[in-house]
Amino acid sequence: VNGVITKTAMPLLKKEEEKTSPPIPVMYGKKDKASVIAIKLEGKTNSRYLKDTLEKMIFTAKNFGGKFYPDDNYKIILFSSTLTKAKNNEVIAVKVAKKIEEMLKDYNHKFKDKIGFGIGVNSGEIIGEKKNNEFTFTTVGNVITKAKRIANDSKGEALLSDEIRRAVINEVRTEKSKDREAWKILRILER
Predict the structure, then answer these.
(1) Is 42 helix (H, G, I), strand (E, B) or coil?
(2) Cα separation of 118 and 96, whole Å?
(3) pLDDT in tens, 19-47
(4) For residue 96, what are the contacts with CB-CB under 8 A and spacing of at least 6?
(5) What burial class does residue 157 get, using C-beta atoms within 10 Å of its C-beta: 0-12 exposed, 13-18 middle, 19+ buried?
(6) What are the per-10-residue average pLDDT scores of the chain (191 residues)?
(7) Distance of alpha carbon 77 from alpha carbon 38, whole angstroms
(8) Cα–chain-centroid distance for residue 60?
């Protein structure tokens, strides 16, 4: 889908099977740069142990100031300066994506029922609004769609879009993915 994609805040760990009312676009708000992590999970995703891992992923995202949104077959984590009070949300998103990759690999190492997963990280602009302690937003362009596309193409690793790679080039060492239009994380430099 090209153009404007609308998302609304949803409660943490809301059952994905539940039907929700259509998202309401944010009409007024602050234009902000945001970083997005899209996580696609495949396999036996209703396992009690995977739910524990998902809770750890959500806790990690919240610990860094991110917001978690289920979106069909994807889990979306959004970081913006309104939420994190930080300017360099790209580095935060890359660190969280790498931690989530490690959590999912650890899960697959420990349990018989393996989970196929892909993680895509992208950045772009949103129009966000925080009202009554809830954060709602509308994306400008295809920031979430591109993160989902990268996650869909990823096979068990966190991949970065070129936009986010350029933003973190001084803090993250990357390598061009051979068969995808994305970048693999080699190492995150701690400063």
Answers:
(1) strand
(2) 14
(3) 333 345 555 678 889 999 999 999 877 78
(4) 37, 60, 61, 64, 66, 77, 79
(5) middle
(6) 36 38 56 94 84 93 93 92 89 96 95 93 90 82 93 94 94 85 88 65
(7) 7
(8) 12
